[in-house]
Specification:
The radius of gyration is 17 Å and the shape is globular. It starts with 7 loop residues before the first strand and ends in a 17-residue tail after the last helix. Strand 4 and strand 5 form a beta hairpin. By secondary structure, the protein is an alpha/beta fold. The protein has four helices and seven strands. It has one domain: Gcn5-related N-acetyltransferase (GNAT) (Aminopeptidase), CATH 3.40.630. The longest helix is centred in the last third of the chain and has 15 residues.
Length: about 180
């Protein structure tokens, strides 16, 4: 298999992988935390991010991302069993062998899918990785027959979900079930 150009994102699709320039996604182009020195002839050598629908992962690597992303201590959570039992699918983003991002796509067994647990490794945040995770999730949910993709989020994530990912505002309701009142 031919290596994709450096400084691109790649997505695993049925039938192969395609490379896309990082700059075409919502996010900043420069990646100072992980940028590598120029290659031969001064060519840019940045990360190659691969995206895989229902990609293989270890529960511990998803838990480490989730704990870091949501500011909590890691737990002994079996992510693999959870998504295999309850989800339409999930998307794994990898920078080399390292898990760089994850999104879970739950569903109702019919036409509604739900984005949950979106998280990206700190050095890659605000560089389009989360946007691409959601775009791949949307494409694959559509391919599996879903007609609606739902998400809920904290207010500060509105620019990401509305601006970068293309969600539209809608009315929704929420009941906090762990509140005894």
């Amino acid at each position: 298999m031919q290596e994709p150009p450096l400084g691109t994102v790649c997505e695993a699709m049925s039938g192969g992988t395609r490379a896309l320039p990082i700059g075409m996604f919502c996010g900043r182009m420069s990646l100072p935390e992980i940028q590598m020195p120029p290659g031969p002839g001064g060519a840019y050598r940045g990360p190659v991010i691969s995206y895989q629908w229902r990609g293989d992962f270890a529960s511990a690597e998803v838990e480490a991302l989730q704990a870091d992303g949501f500011g909590r201590a890691p737990a002994d959570h079996d992510w693999k069993a959870q998504v295999e039992r309850h989800s339409l699918g999930w998307v794994c983003a990898r920078s080399g062998a390292e898990l760089a991002g994850f999104v879970n796509v739950a569903w109702d067994g019919g036409v509604h899918a739900f984005i949950l647990d979106t998280v990206v490794a700190r050095p890659l945040r605000r560089h389009g990785v989360g946007t691409r995770l959601v775009k791949v999730a949307a494409r694959e949910a559509r391919a599996d027959g879903c007609e609606w993709l739902h998400v809920d989020f904290e207010d500060h994530l509105g620019p990401f979900y509305f601006g970068c990912c293309g969600f539209q505002p809608t009315n929704a309701g929420l009941i906090r079930l762990d509140d005894p009142a």
